[in-house]
Amino acid sequence: MDIGERKIKILRAIIHDYINTGEPIGSRTIAKKYDLGVSSATIRNEMSDLEDMGYLEQLHSSSGRKPSDKGYRLYVDKFMEIPKISPEEELRIKKSIMDLAVFEVDRMMQEVIELLSTLTKLTCVVKAPSLRLSYIKYVQFTSIDNVSVLVTIVMDTGVVKNTLAKFNTAVEEELIVKFNNYINEKLRYKTVDEFLNKIFYEIMDEFIRVHENLKTIMKVLLEAFKEIDEVKLYLGGTTNIFNYQEYNDIGNARKFLSLLDDKDKITDLLNNSTDKDKVSIKIGNENFIEGTQECSVISAVYNMNGRPLGSIGIIGPTRIHYPKIVSILSEVVKILNENSSDNLKK
After folding, report:
1. CATH architecture of 5-79
2. Do 318 and 125 touch, CB atoms closer than 8 A?
3. Most buried by CB count within 10 Å: which residue of 56, 90, 225, 235?
4. Nearest-CA neighbor of 104 among 346, 328, 343?
5. What is d(CA 301, CA 337) in angstroms, rounded to the nearest whole number?
């Protein structure tokens, strides 16, 4: 059964109404509230067809109808209109992000979280920049004494990692300097991934026989790169879900809060729901992570000079205001990307 223009108008009206009220709607209400040019009887028949087609759901025989996941998907894919954000919102986004330096990762992520959770009135999660695809700017070895060296790693994203290498025997300063120069020739503007999977082993094969303590430095480097590559999540707007009547139910609220407390599930949710080139929308049962089948996740990748660094997700019930959220998230990611690239060039 094909869906015609009249059915689309009725479905759009039902979706808009349900997003705003959270209440199933009947044909008489649709006829009164929306000027569709047809009788309530015609609307009732069309709603029945839309239910048969899987775009609407009816909780029980005497209730009105509400959109199904399939109905929301048709709406998102076919007739959702993305509004331009207001000048006030655009100014707020720019003021929040533009003055932040790219190396202030924690501050930047917290600012993005607060901004999005405030503008969308939903829960926001940000996966911090993944250093696996980031470039190593330089490595610095600084002798503390003759048996210990401070190892400093600086990434092109501005992330800095300091760690200490302690030796069993004394090491000459000259050897440390020479090895430092060699390491920088090998690592400069190579990715963390290249170091972990290839360069580490090449250096170990070449230098392990020269001096045993160089092996110690390399192991410290290896552990440091593994540590800075660990996934870090930022979460905000957790209590915003209580603005939706769906979460007045203690069971639903507990399930949602349990999801937010599970780092692995949230990471998988962002990984599964993000398209590298555009805003991704996963609705209800399209989310395969346990505890997310009644949620919608709108997410996007942010990058530096076109290189993906991390992802941002907005999580809420399926009746969220999709056009508005997509508009806000797109603008935040755009400004974040521009700011990261500008900071890198400075």
Report:
1. Orthogonal Bundle (1.10)
2. no
3. 56
4. 343
5. 9
Rg (CA), the chain: 26
- 140 beta partners: 152
Query: pLDDT (tens digit, 9 = 90+) per residue, 133-174?
Result: 778 999 999 999 989 999 999 888 777 888 999 988 888 888
Architecture per CATH, domain 132-228, reads as 2-Layer Sandwich (3.30)
Q: Please give the structure tokens belonging to residue 313.
A: 């997700």
Domain boundaries, the chain: 5-79, 87-130+231-345, 132-228
Q: Rounded mean pLDDT of 56-82?
A: 90
151 membership: H or E segment, kind and range: strand 148-155
The position carrying tokens 């935040």 is: 332
CB 187 within 8 A of CB 199: yes
CATH superfamily of 87-130+231-345: GAF domain (3.30.450.40)
DSSP code at position 245 = G
Query: Which residue type, as a one-letter code, is found at position 247?
Result: Y
pLDDT score for 314: 95
Q: Which residues contact 98 (CB under 8 A, 6 or more apart)?
A: 335, 339
